[in-house]
Structure formats: structure tokens, C-alpha cells
Amino acid sequence: MSNDAIGVLVMSYGTPESLDSVEEYYTHIRRGNAPSPEQLKELVDRYEEIAGGVFPLRENTDRQVSSLQDKLDTVETGRYRCYQGLKHARPYIEDGVQRMAQDGIKRAVGIVLAPHFSTMSVASYNKRAMQEAEKHGIEMSCVDSYHLHPSLIQALAERVRDGIDAVSAKAGGAEVKVLFSAHSLPVRIRQVGDPYEEQLLETSRAVAEAARAGSWQFTWQSAGRTNEPWLGPDIMETMSSLAEGGEKALLAAPVGFVSDHLEVLYDLDIEAMAHAERLGISFGRIRMLNSDPLYMETLADSIREAAAKLPS
User: Is 42 labelled a binding residue?
Assistant: First the structure.
């Protein structure tokens, strides 16, 4: 490999490699504070309950990085080399940058597997990557967001259309309301003019229009358990109020997420599905992007745009 190659640090939240590493993972999320036995058991139980346990989640992230490498190679063979960097699991963001340095990479692009920018999420990934890159003399340009990329909107719209058809059929032809969702963040992000919420609404509007969704709204999910208030309402509350208002069929469209992981496979497929059954309404979820070619195209375009800003 030529040292002229541009490194691509593909960043994501991270998942444990096995059930044995859940405690280390949870401790890292809690900034070095080990979880209580009760907290640890609850998280392990969730991983055990989703199909196949923890392993498919890590494999899915690995597959996304591999698929992105393949896509970049079809566009410009040998120009880009992908590395993985995780926020809360090995290889950490810093590990990915260090591997670039060991391979002689001098220029790099950082991109997060999350389409929407927030000072509390994407910004923190990019900051860690840039700080580590500076230590090794690597010039790095980071992608902030790609929430309105045409290929992303197309991929999501296709999934929403398919999901509406499936839930409507299950509900005997009833009209389906689409619930776009994303991971909640503390309410204080609004005080600093954080773009996260508006970018999510922009994505939702664009997807709803492209999918010709007749009825939709945005809601939140998977809020953290802290003493401060988080953005709401939560999807469970939204489902309850809609059922009380006469809605018969709901489709979850978690546009803030790009792959199958705990917040989708457990929070939606298990908890929200069980809640829908209690409410007596039909419920479904769109397929996640994972390694979809249109999503890989979105990432590749964003990376090439960022790379163009690097010094030659």
C-alpha cells in the first residue's frame, strides 16, 4: 500500500465482542464507574434476549466497514483504506488512528455511522479522532453529517414504503402512521442551538415525502437513565396516546440509527412490540440500512467530499 493512500476512520458507538466483555463495555460507557450487579444483569439479559445474543451486533459493524471498503475500491482503487474506531469498545477510536500511523498514513477522513450531527455525539467522536491524529502528524478531515444525502433518503423511503405495506396488510388494510425516531439526548442540547433535532426532522420530512407517507410524526426512544430531563415524548408514550386517539397501525422508522443493534432489536422489536400488543394495535419496523448499497454510496460520497478538503 502506498503511503499516499487516504485513511478512513469509520466510527461507531461500539458493542461488546462477547457476553464476557459486557461489564468492561458498560464500565467504559459509565466513564470508568462499574455498573451495579443489578444494572449489569439487566444489560446482559437484554443482549441474551435478542436473536443470537451479542455477537451479530459486532459482526454487523465489521461488515459495514468491509462493505464501505469495497465501495471505495470500486470508485478509486487503492486510494482509501478503512479502519474501525469505536467509542466504547475495542478497537477504540484512538486505536484506529494509531493503526493508520503504523501503516504510514499521512492524510485521513473520519466518518461516524450516524447521519445526524450533535455536539454530544458526532462532535465527540470527531474530537477524539482529530486529537489522536494530531499526535501522529496525520492531517484529518471529519464528516459532520449526511442526513439529506439523496441516496440515504432513497434507501430509507424504500424501507418506509415496504414497511407501510407490511403493517397495513397485517392490520387488514388500515392506514398506517409512521413514527420516525432517534436516540434521545438530554434536553440541554437545545440551549446551545444543537442541530441534532432539526436535522432529524429534516430527514423525516424528506423520507415521508419520498415514501408518500400519508401520516407521520417524530418521536424519541432509548433515553438514558440519568437525573436530568431527556428529549421526549418517548415512543412508548407516543404509541399509547395514538392508540387512545384511534390509531390502529403504526410503523417504527428509527432513522437516527443505521444498523441492527440493541436500541432496535430490543427497544423496538421486543419492548415496543409487546407494548403494541397490550394496546391492541398493529406494529412493525422498517429494515435497517446495515450494509445497503445506497448507504455505502452515501458514506463513500461523504468521504470523498471530505478528502477533497485535505492538503495535497
Answer: no
